[in-house]
Write a structure and sequence with these properties.
The protein has 418 residues and is of the alpha+beta class. It folds into 2 domains: 244 residues, BirA Bifunctional Protein, domain 2 (2-Layer Sandwich); 84 residues, Anticodon-binding domain (Rossmann fold, 3-Layer(aba) Sandwich). It is built from 15 helices and 16 strands. An 8-stranded mixed β-sheet has the order 1-5-6-11-10-9-7-8, with helices on both faces. Helix 1 packs antiparallel against helix 5 and helix 5 packs parallel to helix 9. The longest helix has 20 residues. Bound molecules: histidyl-adenosine monophosphate. The site of histidyl-adenosine monophosphate (HAM) has 28 residues, from strand 6, strand 10, strand 11 and helix 11.
Length: 418
Amino acid sequence: MNYKIPRGTFDILPADSSKWQYVQQVFRKVAASFGYREITTPIFEMAELFERSSGESSDVVQKEMYRFTDQKGRSFALRPEGTAPVVRSYVENHLEMQGGRTRLYYMGPMFRYDRPQAGRYRQFYQYGVEFIGSNHPYYDAEVIALEMTFLKALGLTRPRLEINSVGCAECARDYDKALRDYYAPHLNELCPDCQKRYELKPRRLLDCKVPSCKAFRKDAPSQFDYLDASCREHFDAVCRYLDQMKINYQINPAIVRGLDYYTNTAFELICDELGAQNSIAGGGRYNALIAQVGGKDTPGIGFAGGFERLLLALEKENIQLPQNPNPALFMVLMGEEAVDFALPLIAELRQKGIYVDYNPEKGSFKAQLKAADSMNARYALIIGEHEAISRTLVLKDLSSGEQQSLSADELLSFPFEA
Ligand code: HAM
């Protein structure tokens, strides 16, 4: 039997692991500079957590969630997203007690049973942040600024920010009514999914990719005409903060997020070169979610991005990411005395974090030097019988070919790149 990886999943192979480590490390650094602390939640939760929060009308919960029943018949789900679990943990662990404003970030695999294609997987890796505890519009802009800082730190210049307001629950009710009135005469012309959306969440009609449904979008009423004064004011204030922060954005009233918990600000980072899956990150405000999950009525805002799409965007901009390191030093040892002399030195160098390699299976001097070359080592350390007796070492720079003699102490303080 030849086992195959499940469809829609991938291995992060050693050749790529340094890229993943790098983007994660940059994200950690940027999040820390905004005062965020890492939180890690389990990859499975009670299925109901997602049903209640992410939404009865969302495809993510209705069609794409990996559900399972455990040995005791309880219903769980592999997490399709990170916000509901973070909010669950915030409520369960009383994180609000640690100050009015809670800033959390996370990274990890998410699971959605979707049709796999470039940039869309069944197991994918998200990074995200959640700011909980204030409805002040400054924080909407600050959360966006964090994502922009991250993209800039990686050298990305092309992603565009699109922003919208989906209003509060009351605005959404008026808007839903306006959309239903608009779509009612065309109900029979809509795809079966949209006929359900019409009932459950008319806003999602605007997001349908079926051409015949798409055609109705251009004359549909705009959410902006249904924002009440305070939602409008909130949105204008977010835009003002973005202007002050010199963050470019486009207002796009058609942004409909795929999860149900959003209120007011909703945004996406679009990378046009990525084709159909062009949203590299998305998020927004969720002022009703914390109470929905059993906490006190507390506002929140956050976003999440996908590492796979981020790496594709970096490739499109030809941004070179760090490669796996080559050995700083390759040992070329002739005879037992040399090995005796060298092994404790190798141990000390590795203790200092220096990448040292040795291949005892290569016998001759020539074969060992060839091995050093094929590993792209920076230096070779040559110890023959003569050097072992005189306790001297020969360090050969493999790019220039220059050699120098060193004592063991000098070797240990040599400025190798760790
Ligand atoms: P989302 O828009 O569903 O939002 O996902 C965020 C990002 O995850 C997307 O922009 C995309 O980069 C990536 N992503 C989503 N699905 C897939 C997939 N099947 N394959 C590869 N990448 C994918 C959320 O998940 C919200 N929890 C974001 C949020 C945080 N809102 C408030 N706080």
